[in-house]
Amino acid sequence: MVEYKIKSMDNIFRIVTWNCRRATIVSGVWDYLLEMDPDVTLLQEVSSIPEKVCSVYEYQMRRATSKAGSPQRFSTALLVKGRIGNQLILPSHAKWIEEELQRFSGNLVALELLPNNGPPIKAVSVHGPAWPVDRKRLSGIDVTGVRLTQNRDVWLMDLLWMSLKYQRSDLDQPWIIAGDFNLSETFDLWPGGPRGNREYLDRMRELGLIECLRQSKGILTPTFRNPRGGEFKHQIDHVFVSPVLAERLVTCDTGSFDRVFNAGLSDHLPIVTDFRL
User: Fold this and answer.
1) Is residue 7 domain-resident?
2) Cα–Cα distance measured from residue 208 to residue 240, given in angstroms and rounded to the nearest whole number
3) What is the per-residue pLDDT across 89-139, written as a single tens digit (0 to 9) for each?
4) What CATH number is associated with residue 153?
5) What is the pLDDT of residues 161-216, one digit of tens each?
6) Do 12 and 45 meet the contact criterion of CB atoms below 8 Å apart?
């Protein structure tokens, strides 16, 4: 875990993703974010953004959706040093999938970004709900090929994967899909057997998407500390990029354990990913 300082603006394009644990304008999250100096930022659980950040970044944020379907008190956000382009539609072969993706559009903020320092990018800031899609809404629907073979439920992340699969031919462009997916390989070790977490990561790899933290570190790298007991072994945050970005990957690592956890900024570490321009 690295203390990130000023990067070289001449040859590095930096992306940060971070679940900020409902950060408000007075949170210390923002000072650390500005110090990391990303060109593109994908945030989850944001309550408000201070002017010192708004003056540097153009951004869009949408309130996440609760289990009951009402808006959460926090938002999912995308920020860019540059301009925000068009909203991305997450299409699918099935109407019911598109309807569910729309229902949770505040958990999947998808935009075209035009950074000042870097290529145009299609970005999706992800906040995966900790609950599955309501089975009542799926009554009578054939979910074969959508649902993981190791899980009896359909999750929003499954629907995101289906949309990416549907537009697979578009993944030859620069894409980043990153954030809090609420899934970790370590969850498959819980009693009862695998729940499809590794299976999901394999699905994403089969689309040609590279998980940058695993690619860079070579091993599972924890990103989340459980508030109860302080257990620190789960990687539930992920950075997936298309091959055209992956071939320019320089390094990917988490932020500072001490800076984040000891200061109580969040229960998640940021993931910082650098690419060659």
Assistant:
1) no
2) 10
3) 999 999 999 999 999 999 999 999 999 998 999 999 999 999 999 999 999
4) 3.60.10.10
5) 999 999 999 999 999 999 999 999 999 999 999 999 999 999 999 999 999 999 99
6) no
Residue 6 located in a structural domain: no
Dist CA 85 CA 197 (whole Å): 33
Percent with pLDDT over 70 in the chain: 96
Amino acid in position 147 = R
CA distances from 242 to 148, 174, 175 (A): 22, 6, 5
Task: Tokens for 250, please give them.
Answer: 């320089």
Distance CA 105, CA 142 (A): 23
CA–CA separation, 238 vs 271, rounded Å? 8
For the CA atoms of 276, 108, 61, 179, the dihedral, rounded to the nearest 10 degrees, stands at -50
The per-residue DSSP string of 12-38 comes to EEEEEEEEEEEE-TT-THHHHHHHH--
Residue 2 lies in a domain: no
Quote the domain boundaries for residue 230. Answer: 12-276
Q: Number of folded domains in the chain?
A: 1
Q: Any idea which residue has 């072994």 for tokens? A: 233
Residue 187 lies in a domain: yes
- Picking from 48, 63, 147, the residue whose alpha carbon sits closest to that of residue 108 is 63
- The pLDDT confidence band at residue 227, using thresholds 50, 70 and 90, is confident
3-state helix, strand, coil in the chain (%, to 5): 25, 30, 45
